[in-house]
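Q: Start with the shorter request: fold the first protein.
A: Done. Sequence, then structure:
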Amino acid sequence: MDAEIVIVGAGAAGLSLARHLCAAPPGARVPSVVLVEPPPGPTRPAVRTWCHWGPPDGPYDAVLTASWERLRVRDSSGREAGGVPRGLRYKMLRSDVFEEFVLGELSGRPGFVREPATVTRVTSGPGGPVVEGHDARGRPYRRRARWVFDSRPLPALPPARTTLLQHFRGWFVRTAGPRFDPGCADLMDFRTPQPAHGLSFGYVLPLGPREALVEYTEFSRAPLDEAGYEAALRDYTGKVLRLGAFEVTGSEQGVIPMTDARFPRSPAPGVFRVGTAGGATRPSTGYTFAAVQRQARQVADRYRRGLAPVPPVPHSRRSRAMDAVLLRALDRDRVDGAAFFARLFTALPPERVLAFLDGATGPLQDLGVGRHVPWGPMTRTALELPFLRRRPAGAPPHRGEP
């Protein structure tokens, strides 16, 4: 056997899992870990921004690009809600900085190896799972392991009753004069024109008085083309934020699946999916980073206790059931998505809303949140979900549905 554990992919999920497995306390079991990452070139993903909320003394605080004590949500008329979430900060990490930080920690650790290769398949056999592919020069690559953790994106989403996309484009801007409050992040600004189907909002993360990441985001069935995103950002920065003259210093774009699909954790014996491919993305919000950390910690804990390191389901059954109801209600246009999220932040303390969105609330707290949602359409949706068939992503709607 070549290694005890092979991790495929060096994104947030792969790096976090390697870090938690190798950062064992004295006397604890430490596995041999091979991290397989794409070689430099077009197969490596572009630099991305990851955001999450957590206590002010988090493990990655030393390498944050920025963090914010105060959060703000604006409804369609511009009324503000939010505030300072007690015990939490909203945090921004850049993927290249995170990679450098984690690999710096792991460098020189006994049993940890990085190997550049493009993985084309992971198979399972009597001697354990095998990772196969090719290196940067096209030569065959092959590694056998006891366990393989695969963080590569799935070729297709699993069947679901509802699949929406959270798609966005953002500009890093530098304005001519001070236009931003560096202490406040605009989590959702619903003063954007709402699409005919789904919802949209602006997202502003200040990096200084004159610098910020400004994004346009939609929850809908299909992404826009480049011209559509550019027009939406010009409208938001010009008509809504009224930034005046500014320079675009960088950009980012992405698509995050929001689905009530059931993600298989183990497609083959000894092979486990982690990260978005393992269901870590919260279906109702698209947030992933915090769930990836929970998943990695629990895998490492199971390994040290001598148990099979099966990744846990990242979100509770109750959270996933509530997400399924919300996704379908949004997809069927039964609720006004902009009003729904704005009302939660208006009616409840921000730390309670964030805990709810992270799946960290109990049944009684969830009932308290439920007092502020539109009961009629949500109840109708909850009652019909058990009778709906899960369909492949992109399949025609159920009969009689738009």
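Q: Next, the second protein, separately.
A: Sequence, then structure:
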Amino acid sequence: MNSEIRELEPKAVWNKFADLNAVPRPSKKEERVIAFMKDFGKSLGLETLEDAVGNVIIKKPATKGMEDRQTVVMQSHLDMVHQKNNDTNFDFDNQGIDMYVDGDWVRANGTTLGADNGLGVATIMAILESKEIAHPAIEALFTIDEETGMTGAMGLKPGVLSGAILLNLDTEEDDEIGVGCAGGIDVTATRDYEEEDTPESKIGYTITVKGLQGGHSGMQIHEGLGNANKIMNRIMFDGFEHFGLRISEINGGGLRNAIPRESTAIVAIDASKEENFVTHIAEISKAIKKEYKTMEPHLDILIAKVQTPKKIMDLGVQEGLTRAIYAAVNGVYRMSADIPDLVETSNNIAKVSVKDGKIHIGCLTRSSVESSKWDLAHALRATFELTGCDVDFSGDYPGWTPNMDSPILKVMETLYEKLNHEKPHVAACHAGLECGILGKNYPEMDMISFGPNIKGAHSPDERAQISSVQKFWTFVLEILKQIPKK
């Protein structure tokens, strides 16, 4: 229950998080949370403005004795990824997130939690509201639409901010100080196709792939998690080879930044081969589950007999589609040659939709190297164009190049070691952070990213560690005290 959340320490953060999570805030539908943030800033008597694209900026003067310090921009994004389990009845557009405490973790009931990036937002809100915390002048920047295009960061104009240092509170490991991130581009393949009448000799089945963990398509892309679209396509391909399986509909995955957890398909098979089909699917399912038993212990592949669909996909198009999805890169494409253990370039086949004569395939390609990002994007384009698809590139955003000589990095490294008696992990990440985009219009701004432990972001298994939020809060307060002088 959310009342239980409000009793957690630090109460200033968790109460603001509970307030925020009561406000629906899907990407591209942030009107209510924008109004919420503006009302919050104005209620404190602070200068509050909304820019042309919907970002909210709240400015707070320095506390006494801190007026000679550099102005700090504290930044987090307002929107959250909306994912839920299939058996969860939840309306993200109208309901607040239902949270509960599970040991040292806060979770949501069957949905994403919104800790990404709600805990960052709540932390900034707590500082803006406080009358006791020492800090330099603060420009709180709350961006919109980070999760589905970063249009808020892209739309922020030069001159709106005056801060010399930017603290981005959107990293998900509390021992990490982020100094770089990947850029990304959406790759979308579409085509129309002719539907055929289903032959009378065929019968209908549904195939369901479910029980996968899902997760962040950047930070977790190297973990070997199952992709429901890839697994479903494997079954489609095999079913055609052995049983004349024909596709009527496919609905797999959803958001580009989430590794797809579930896929369903309606297919038709030769009635004369039904018994062998059922046996064979059981065998291939067993083999696939064995492959994934370590990373995906709850993977399930189910079939059920249904009314025979009236229409099926044109055979030639079906053959091309299943071959293209089989061939398309999913997962890690290249590891960084310069930074140990960093994924340089990857792709997530996030969405596959086949219905009513239309194919839609949505991918998110990421890379910390621009040339490698475009190399993979064009490889995907070539793969899908070979099967007659039109391929569109959109939502292109740059990466963030590490600056190992950053002054605020030196301050934070020293403070972290002093507080925690160990060195922090200074690293670039494979997620898309807004720092690279913000840096285009504010190239002189010294930027860093950090945050508390958040696991399973972009999935209903998202959870935030309570003890880590306490650690993070202490770190933030000490950083604000040590901001360099102007």
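Q: Describe the second briefly.
A: The chain has two domains: 2-181+399-481, 185-397. The chain is about 30% helix and 30% strand.
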